[in-house]
Specification:
By secondary structure, this protein is an alpha/beta fold. It is built from ten helices and nine strands. Bound molecules: phosphoric acid mono(formamide)ester. The site of phosphoric acid mono(formamide)ester has 10 residues, from helix 2.
């Protein structure tokens, strides 16, 4: 069964069948990364360009590793040393890269909708959204779902609390959409200044009180306070923010004992999460990073399909 989309632009476009297909395929790809020789020829002869206009550690490295583990050629396009610095537009850059016939272009951009624009101009390559402004980060939500499944064996009916800077978070948006489609009970929590009113349209419960969000939760997903996107002051001080919305040991009496603590990274230690919790027994943060490789392998594989010359 193929995906219903040619491009992976957002969770919004995916059906529940698409999500299950990606998660099931990711499960089968995990094993490759555990082998001594972590490489198969499945996508030999295919090429993937990573086009990142914003900094990234996890997403960029894992897309590159995912492509290489499947035998594809991966090229990391560095915006800082490209003709973007001479004023070349996104569309011109995209058209020039497409002229070299890549099979997939993975794009991260500070502007919401940038991957969608590239997709409109793409005759051949599939476009993958690796994070567009404050809009979506679909592969992050998929790897988060895979990590939840690893620990909870299901997503439906779980209480998931997403806490922090909701307004600037593409991770929050993609997770709210994915977890909602999969039947979870999603709560979002943060200061009123950092939760946009439109969030209620995603079918989540909004609260400004961390105790309400965490009470009985199966999953606690902490978000980074995105100072680089905050043009105004949204809370009086980091100390006050941490007291009200930071995750620390004493607040772990509210979720279930079996709860897991997640964070997409990068972490602001001591701002939204106490290092003791980030590194402690509830944390699955590094498992999320590991699962990022498997999910991105699955996404590349499913978008490219199995052509005649591809081998398993
Ligand atoms: N979670 C995430 O997107 O991390 P990077 O910005 O390092 O890719």
């Amino acid at each position: 069964m193929p995906l219903s989309v040619k491009h992976l632009l957002g969770i919004e476009d995916l059906t529940v069948d698409d999500i299950n297909l990606i998660l099931n395929t990711s499960q089968s790809f995990k094993e490759i990364s555990a082998r001594p020789i972590k490489k198969v020829p499945t996508l030999r002869g295919k090429s993937v360009i990573n086009l990142f206009y914003e900094p990234s550690t996890r997403t960029r490295a894992s897309f590159e590793i995912a492509a290489k583990r499947l035998g594809a050629d991966a090229v990391n396009f560095s915006v800082a040393t490209s003709s973007v610095t001479k004023g070349e537009s996104l569309i011109d850059t995209g058209n020039n890269l497409q002229s070299m016939n890549p099979d997939i272009i993975v794009v991260r951009h500070s502007a919401a909708g940038a991957p969608h624009l590239l997709a409109q101009y793409s005759k051949y390559a599939s476009i993958v959204n690796a994070g567009d402004g404050m809009h979506e980060h679909p592969t992050q939500a998929l790897l988060d779902a895979l990590t939840i499944l690893d620990h909870k064996k299901k997503i439906a009916d779980l209480k998931v609390a997403i806490v922090g800077d909701i307004a600037h978070s593409r991770v929050a948006r993609s997770n709210a959409l994915l977890l909602g489609k999969m039947g979870a009970e999603v709560w979002v929590c943060g200061p009123p200044t950092l939760i946009p009113v439109e969030f209620e349209q995603y079918g989540v419960t909004v609260t400004y009180h961390m105790k309400e969000a965490l009470q009985g939760a199966d999953v606690v997903m902490m978000l980074r306070t995105q100072r680089e996107r905050q043009q105004e002051v949204f809370y009086p001080s980091v100390k006050e923010y941490f007291a009200l919305y930071g995750l620390e040991r004493k607040k772990m009496k509210w979720p279930k004992k079996s709860a897991i603590v997640m964070h997409p990274g990068p972490i602001n230690r001591g701002v939204e999460i106490d290092p003791e919790l980030a590194d402690g027994e509830y944390s699955v943060i590094l498992e999320q990073v590991t699962n990022g490789v498997a999910v991105r392998m699955a996404v590349l594989f499913l978008l490219l399909g199995t052509s005649e010359e591809s081998e398993q």
